[in-house]
Amino acid sequence: MKVLGIGNAIVDVLCKVDDQFIDDHKLTKGTMKLVDEQEFQKLLQNLKIENTVSGGSVANSIVGMSQLGDDVSFIGKVNNDELGQKYIDGLQKENVQYFYKAKKENVPTGTCLILITPDSERTMCTFLGVAGKISDQDIDENAVKNAEITFLEGYLWDEGEPKKAFERALLSANKSAMSLSDPFCVDRHKASFLDLVNNKLDIIFANEKEAMTLIDAKDFNEVIEFGKSLNKLFIVTRSNKGSIAINGNDISETDAKKNLKILDLTGAGDLFAAGFLHGLVNNKDVYESLKLGTEMASKIIQKIGARLD
């Protein structure tokens, strides 16, 4: 197995809204907010659903890798309900091995409302449902040991059971990677994330805002210096400024692709990670891997949703 992803198993519900909708509901554009089921339903009640798809940040990356021909798998917790079944079917259709057996739970399968504004930015409201209840008991140790890289998402990290799941996976991993997921997520778990980045992970993905939030940086040079001090792969995407990979004093950079018809930024970071990891597990150098990541991200932002067809 090339890569095993462990993350929140979330069904994405995509809707187009105007900026007023974001303001009216006191949301912060371009971020992810956790909501309860009641708030989720209230937000959804007057919206037209464009699409529903098996989502979750790391799951999107894993599907991207599968589409590139890699042998990949995923662990994420769903309920044995209609959305849970839809989730499993969605992964299996994409040739992703799913190492979790759905059981009847008191809490429904997780859902994420993705609100796309006219500027193509996405604002997410996530009802974690049972996805947020993942525990160390849900981690298939053999699946972790059989994967070259175990890829975790920052969204998953939470005190209690998810933290134990995370730690169990890291103990058995041959090589571990993580995406920092969201600036609010980094802010909430800063001390834990710094410990993971410094001491436990081999590969870290972040966007510029997440990286700067992690170390309270005033400018991007501080991020570069921090990356150098880690002596491990630290990859930062910088939107229209391209992306950079730092490994000790080795620094590789690529430019963003120009003149794209951007429709929706959902999944840009997820698909970037898919392209980069695809390069890495197929023995490409870091620069080539950055280019592959950029190519995948460029493709996804020119369509609605976080999955390539």
Your description of this structure?
The chain is α/β, with parallel strands linked by helices and 309 residues long. The protein has one domain (3-7, 56-106, 132-300): 3-Layer(aba) Sandwich (UDP-N-acetylmuramoyl-L-alanine:D-glutamate ligase). It contains twelve helices and 14 strands. The strands form two sheets. A nine-stranded mixed β-sheet has the order 6-5-1-9-10-11-12-13-14, with helices on both faces. It has a five-stranded mixed β-sheet with strand order 3-8-7-2-4. α3 packs across α11 (268-281) and α9 (208-215) crosses α10 (220-230).
Number of helices: 12
Strand numbers in spatial order across the main sheet: 6-5-1-9-10-11-12-13-14
How far do the termini sit from each other? 23 Å
* Mean pLDDT rating: 91
Principal-axes shape call: globular
Q: Any idea what the CATH architecture is? A: 3-Layer(aba) Sandwich
Which CATH top level class fits? Alpha Beta
Approximate strand percentage = 15-25%
Largest sheet: 9 strands, mixed
Assigned CATH superfamily: Ribokinase
List the uncertain runs: none
- Number of domain units: 1
Which bin fits the share of residues in helices?
25-40%
Give the SSE order as H and E letters.
EEHEHEHEHEEEHEHEHHEHHEEEHH
* CATH topology grouping: UDP-N-acetylmuramoyl-L-alanine:D-glutamate ligase
Radius of gyration: 18 Å
Task: Decide which structural class fits the backbone.
Answer: alpha/beta
